[in-house]
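re the bet — no i am not wrong, look at it urself. input seq straight from the record:
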Amino acid sequence: MPNADTTALEAAAFRRLLAHLRQRSDVQNIDLMILAGFCRNCLSNWYQEAAEGAGTPVSKDAAREIIYAMPFAQWKAEHQAEATPEQLAAFEAAQRAHP
C-alpha cells in the first residue's frame, strides 16, 4: 500500500478513536491508564510531540483541546470524577507492572 494511503488510513483511525473517546466521556482517564497504559492526556502529549517533530509547535493546552474537543478545564469540570482509593491502588499496581 502506498505511503499516502497508509497515512490517510491511520489518520482516519485516529479520528475514529478520538470520536469514540469523546462519546465515552464516562470512561475515566485513570481507568484507561490502568487497563491500557494510556489516556486522553497521553494522546495529547503524543499529538504535541508529533506537531513539534513536524515543525509546527503546539502548546500543551492547544493539544489537549484538540483531543478533548473543548478546553481541558471544562472537560475535567464536566466529566472527570475524583479517583477512588481502589482506582489509585490499581493505577499504582499497573505502573509497577508496566513501568
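see?? The CA atoms of residues 40 and 73 lie 13 Å apart. told u. also The chain has one domain: 3-97. so pay up
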